[in-house]
């Protein structure tokens, strides 16, 4: 990104929050946004039935765009899902069945509704949920070749970094995947024609695809379109944002309990707090910087604010504050009153004399293998009902389950480290 300082409110705030990485013509886009509202889109591949934290920055860009009076389009790739985006992947994606794509599309649309304001009066900056299957599914191969093929240079497509990396690997790049960039370019032109979209946003790995769409619209329609990418977000320790030992951090409560979503943000590394506050909350930039500059024990206050604000955007203020109260109850030793994530086991799992403690960790998903569970216990990292597990073979039976003080099903409180707490219950 150049040293250019935008004047339009959206670009100015996006830059201040560290959300911008590359732009095709920042000065011209800035001028266009100063002239009035624009329509911009981000594409989402329906590879799962929920979006996750790895998608969060692109979603927050759409959210910020709408807050500044522009119109966001969230494009679900129902058509391109039949190919799969090869960008910076080691191997080809598995092709999905139509019913899987349909289910995933519904989940992605539900995810987006958690972040964007759909109560806006129609005709203003109300978000649009689009699906590229609506136009790609009607294309014939000959029509696509005649209309688009002449405007794509094979040598230029081969120069894209995402393509070069795949060609250097033994896996190679299939002709099917090679067409993905063409179809994404077609999407940009189609959204411009149908809805007046002039800006495509996306992760930095989408740069080549975005530029292809801009070039296609310029060559065929004489249109001036723009591309804007977000940076690859990694943690201070170098891990990719949203990746964890427990898997993807989903945004839908059906896939990940709100408490766990809150805990994910609460566990942010000290050095990342200020940056993540700016990227993933609506708090003023100055407040984010103040909180991020806190040190020692005080940084934990900022982490709790980050967790609550990020969770409120995704799940609502009430659910976020309930998750915070639950966490505070656990940390304060009042966990008996905290609504924790629940894992239900079959009675047979601990029948008779019970099950060794290390197996309980595996059964509840807190360890992937028995060896991992044993190491965790030996290191003092696991507790049952507040008491450390001293013996990895310590038997856990129904006698360890008791009703909470205020009533409810008998449960066992299992804690992993200082920040992971779950309620284990037995099926009736």
TrEMBL record:
GO biological process, one term: tyrosyl-tRNA aminoacylation
Enzyme kind, highest EC tier: ligase
Motif mapping: 'HIGH' region: 46-55
Reaction(s) catalysed (UniProt annotation): tRNA(Tyr) + L-tyrosine + ATP = L-tyrosyl-tRNA(Tyr) + AMP + diphosphate + H(+)
Coiled-coil regions listed: none
CDD domains: S4 (cd00165), TyrRS_core (cd00805)
Source superkingdom: Bacteria
Leader sequence residues: none
Subunit structure: Homodimer.
NCBIfam families, per database record: tyrS
Name of the protein in its database record: Tyrosine--tRNA ligase
Organism annotation: Formicincola oecophyllae
């Amino acid at each position: 990104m150049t040293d250019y300082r935008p004047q339009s409110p959206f670009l100015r705030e996006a830059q201040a929050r560290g959300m911008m990485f590359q732009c095709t013509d920042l000065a011209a886009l800035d001028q266009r946004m100063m002239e009035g509202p624009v329509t911009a889109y981000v594409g989402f591949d329906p590879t799962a039935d929920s979006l996750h934290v790895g998608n969060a920055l692109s979603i927050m860009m759409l959210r910020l765009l709408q807050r500044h009076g522009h119109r966001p389009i969230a494009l679900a790739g129902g058509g391109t899902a039949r190919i799969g985006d090869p960008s910076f992947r080691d191997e080809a994606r598995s092709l999905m069945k139509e019913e899987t794509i349909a289910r995933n599309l519904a989940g992605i649309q539900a995810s987006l509704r958690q972040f964007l304001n759909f109560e806006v009066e129609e005709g203003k900056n109300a978000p649009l949920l689009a699906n590229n299957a609506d136009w790609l599914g009607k294309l014939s191969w000959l029509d696509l070749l005649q209309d688009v093929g002449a405007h794509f240079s094979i040598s230029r497509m081969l120069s894209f970094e995402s393509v070069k990396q795949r060609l250097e690997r033994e896996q190679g790049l299939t002709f099917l995947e090679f067409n993905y960039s063409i179809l994404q370019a077609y999407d940009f032109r189609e959204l411009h024609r149908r809805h007046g979209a002039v800006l495509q946003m996306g992760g930095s790995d989408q740069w080549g695809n975005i530029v292809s769409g801009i070039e296609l619209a310029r060559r065929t329609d004489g249109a001036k379109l723009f591309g804007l990418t977000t940076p690859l977000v990694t943690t201070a320790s170098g891990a990719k944002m949203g990746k964890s030992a427990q898997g993807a951090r989903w945004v839908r409560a059906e896939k990940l309990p709100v408490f766990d979503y809150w805990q994910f943000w609460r566990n942010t590394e000290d050095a990342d707090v200020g940056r993540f506050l700016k990227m993933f909350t609506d708090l003023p930039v100055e407040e984010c910087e103040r909180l991020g500059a806190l040190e020692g024990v005080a940084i934990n206050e900022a982490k709790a604010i980050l967790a609550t604000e990020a969770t409120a955007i995704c799940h609502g203020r009430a659910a976020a504050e309930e998750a915070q109260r639950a966490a505070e109850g656990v940390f304060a030793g009042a966990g008996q009153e905290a609504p924790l994530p629940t894992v239900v086991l079959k009675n047979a799992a601990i029948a008779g004399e019970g099950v060794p403690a290390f197996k309980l960790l595996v059964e509840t998903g807190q360890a992937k293998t028995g060896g991992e569970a044993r190491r965790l216990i030996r290191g003092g990292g696991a507790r049952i009902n507040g008491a450390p597990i001293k013996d990895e073979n310590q038997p856990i039976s129904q006698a360890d389950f008791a009703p909470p003080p205020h009533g409810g099903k008998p449960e066992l409180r299992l804690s992993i480290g200082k920040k992971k707490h779950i309620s284990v219950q037995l099926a009736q």
